[in-house]
Design brief:
Elements: H1 6-9, H2 25-33, E1 39-44, H3 49-60, E2 64-70, H4 72-82, E3 90-93, H5 97-109, E4 115-118, H6 123-131, E5 144-150, E6 158-161, H7 171-187, E7 194-198, H8 209-222, E8 230-235, H9 237-241, H10 243-248, E9 261-263, H11 267-279, E10 284-290, E11 296-297, H12 305-323
Parallel strand pairs: 1-2, 1-4, 2-3, 4-11, 6-9, 7-8, 7-9
Antiparallel strand pairs: 5-6, 5-10, 10-11
Helix pairs in contact: 2-12, 3-12, 5-6
């Protein structure tokens, strides 16, 4: 039976010398995704090995049905060079990456795909098509990004937002950023999340505006303006994830020391924190864009196939949850 709590997903077990390694958090996410119907996924410009192999392996795992959009000759050449079998997948031939982004968004608008997945094009190219006022995928909700991080030294799956889309979000934007990630967390079946709103300190001070935003966001949750989660903030990073640090500071909270979602004050802080976790803590980082008409798998061109697979798994679970509920209203 698949565990219902993230504490089960993130648990670290002690192995004997000949025991098989325990499943990672991503392995268990993938196992969940295999239990729901595969999602038709529009893959935009998969013109290098990693961006092509990711959706192909996700299809072989039974979690997505890819439609490949981009220069057909180039996609086929990459497949031949790296031994990737794409014969059974539909390829929609367009001339270049910008055209691929526009066509991919068009296919989603025509309800021909439940997910959109970034290939080897620049993020800006894809997001221009997604955020276009007339032809894009905007909804009434602010679009935001979340990293889903598997850090070997932390028992929980960490959701980190927003480190890729909103540069300096105001209070209203932060409200949408939090609601987006909470909806993802709950709808992929991880329960009620503990959300830490990060700043440099854990006390409210007018000298650090992010602490005031954090306090306001917590009160917004009290008033039902943010739903489905337990919020606390401001919290410094140490007392958000380390129970001993929270204890030393005298912080009594359901969130402190046990956070599952980390909300950063701005993109710079989020980007640096995510890369610190990847390069110093050896975390894996899957990535999704939320708040659009469909979940968007938005990973870096340098990301591993493993991270892309985890991104697909989370997006598929989210798309499956949305099948039984109304999607976000268009803007």
């Amino acid at each position: 039976m698949i565990p219902e709590k993230d504490s089960d997903i993130g648990a670290i077990s002690v192995m004997g010398p000949f025991a098989a390694p325990p499943p990672t958090k991503y392995d268990r996410l993938l196992a969940r995704a295999k239990e729901v119907p595969a999602a038709t996924t529009i893959v935009v410009h998969p013109c290098d090995e990693t961006s092509l192999r990711g959706p192909v392996e996700a299809a072989e795992a039974g979690i997505v049905r890819p439609i490949l959009v981009g220069p057909a000759a180039k996609i086929s050449a990459v497949a031949r060079e790296h031994g990737i079998k794409i014969d059974r997948f539909e390829i929609i031939d367009v001339a270049h990456s910008e055209a691929a982004a526009a066509k991919g968004v068009e296919l989603v608008r025509e309800s021909k795909g439940e997910l959109l997945m970034k290939g080897s094009l620049h993020t800006d190219e894809l997001m221009r098509a997604v955020t276009s006022g007339q032809t894009g995928l905007r909804t009434a909700r602010r679009i935001s990004h979340v990293f889903i991080m598997d850090a070997p030294t932390y028992a929980e799956t960490l959701f980190l937002t927003d480190a890729a889309i909103n540069i300096a979000p105001d209070l209203d934007a932060k409200r949408d950023i939090i609601q987006n990630v909470v909806d993802l967390f709950t709808q992929v079946g991880l329960g009620t999340p503990r959300v830490a709103i990060l700043s440099a300190v854990e006390t409210v001070t007018s000298k650090i505006p992010s602490t005031i935003d954090a306090a306001a966001l917590c009160k917004m949750a009290d008033r039902g303006q943010i739903t489905g989660a337990i919020l606390d903030g401001p919290l410094a990073f140490d007392n958000a994830i380390d129970p001993e640090a929270a204890k030393i500071k005298g912080i009594k909270s359901e969130v402190a020391g046990r956070a599952q979602i980390l909300v950063v004050p701005d993109l710079e802080a989020g980007n640096m924190l995510a890369k610190n976790l990847v390069y110093l803590a050896k975390a894996d980082a899957a990535g999704l864009v939320l708040g659009a008409r469909v979940p968007i798998v938005l990973t870096s061109r340098a990301d591993s196939v493993r991270s892309r697979m985890a991104s697909c798994a989370a997006a598929v679970l989210y798309a499956h949850a949305r099948r039984g509920a109304a999607a976000l209203p268009a803007a």
